[in-house]
Amino acid sequence: MDLVKQVVKNVERRSPGEPEFLQAVTEVLESVTPVIKRKKAYQDACILDRVVEPERVFMFRVPWQDDQGKFQINRGFRVQFNSAIGPYKGGLRFHPSVYLGIIKFLGFEQIFKNALTTLPMGGGKGGSDFDPKGKSDSEVMRFCQSFMTELQRHIGADTDVPAGDIGVGGREIGFMYGQYKRLRNEFTGVLTGKGLKWGGSLVRTEATGYGLTYIIDEMLKDAGESIDGKTIVMSGSGNVAIYAVEKVHQLGGKVVTMSDSTGWIHDPEGIKLDLIKDIKEVRRGRIKEYASEVKSAKYTDAGSSKNVWTIPCDIAMPNATQNELNGDDAKKLIKNGVKAVGEGANMPSTPEAIDAFLKAKVLFSPAKAANAGGVATSGLEMSQNSMRLNWSFEETDAKLKRIMQSIHTQCKDAAEEYGCPGNFVAGANIAGFIKVADSMMAQGLV
After folding, report:
1. Where would you tag: which of 66, 191, 250, 338 has the fewest CB atoms within 10 A of its CB?
2. Does the annotation count 125 as an active-site position?
3. Which domains does the chain have, with CATH numbers?
4. Average predicted confidence (pLDDT) for the chain
5. Set 89, 104, 113, 125: catalytic member
6. Quick one: pLDDT band at residue 9, thresholds 50, 70, 90?
7. What's the rounded Cα separation, in Å, for the pair 268 and 407?
8. Which long-range contacts (CB under 8 A, 24 or more apart) does 389-394 make?
């Protein structure tokens, strides 16, 4: 459709040097082409041109002092992308790779992911090129306090509610929340992922990994199967991967690989989760340590030509980072008999990989659907904060499972309605887009 091509061309012209953002925009807009053709009112209201443009972008200097007394300078970001259905909601990422294009890509994806959760949350994202790895707690605290000193001007419980992401866990959320409370003199639900003793929600830690596993199980059930007895290959060893392993084990599956930036492990007898948790959550160590302690495991360096996707499996879960699974990887998985793929990371599969999975009729749940459990439970935390309540683990987990089931149903129904049954990539984009577009239409030209 000429209109979609023109909007993509405009994004490319106005956002040069931001390939991740352009990739995300292209995927969504190509998916919603049938909707635009059917609903001329969207064309008249320039919905496509408006939805790809952030409502606000903040970029700021973050000065801090290291333990040697030297001054350090990082760059901070917050992109408030779309508030049509609720306050901006999205994580903060602390990683050297962070730049404006990454934050815009993540914020754009967040719009539609949040819409799928059924909760009233708009889309946003933020972060910094600060690297918390190797930093002392005192250094991380000083950075977080400086970062929040600027960010607090732009956020609020009814305006913009950040959460954690890569490099931002409970420690970082705590330091930032303390500084927000100190500066604003208010105790509100302005950040999610808080500690359980001061406003956090049970299941928030587990939510993304649990939700990923729930939605894969739903896809398999539609095909008359389940996770029980299946072999799972996954990348990553952070929060998402760890709790995906936990839920897979509860549902009777076996995970045989995990990875980090240094390399990956293959344990054909099944990953020993307690050891992984000790290495990653207690020691803050590297995945290589697992192989040195478990005889059945083999470690492969990240520089090797082989990766986790060469291991035969029933289910694949890319849980590490964007564009980690390419077309060749997808072909290897298909050749080895993969039945289902669920994206735990944000946009971890390249367009070529997605095309290969869809053509091979592999069940494929894209990130904006499959990893929405984290933001869904953040939304539940916001609700509990507003009501000054705490729900039990079982109650919150049950709500999360129902949300993931609803997301799968929305994707399935939208794909069928617009002529691409079984294509959950298109279904997720269409279902999320229609909810946001209708809300934008109702609120006028803003």
Report:
1. 250
2. yes
3. 54-187 (3.40.50.10860), 207-370 (3.40.50.720)
4. 96
5. 125
6. very high
7. 32
8. 390/201, 390/202, 391/201, 391/202, 392/202, 393/202, 393/203
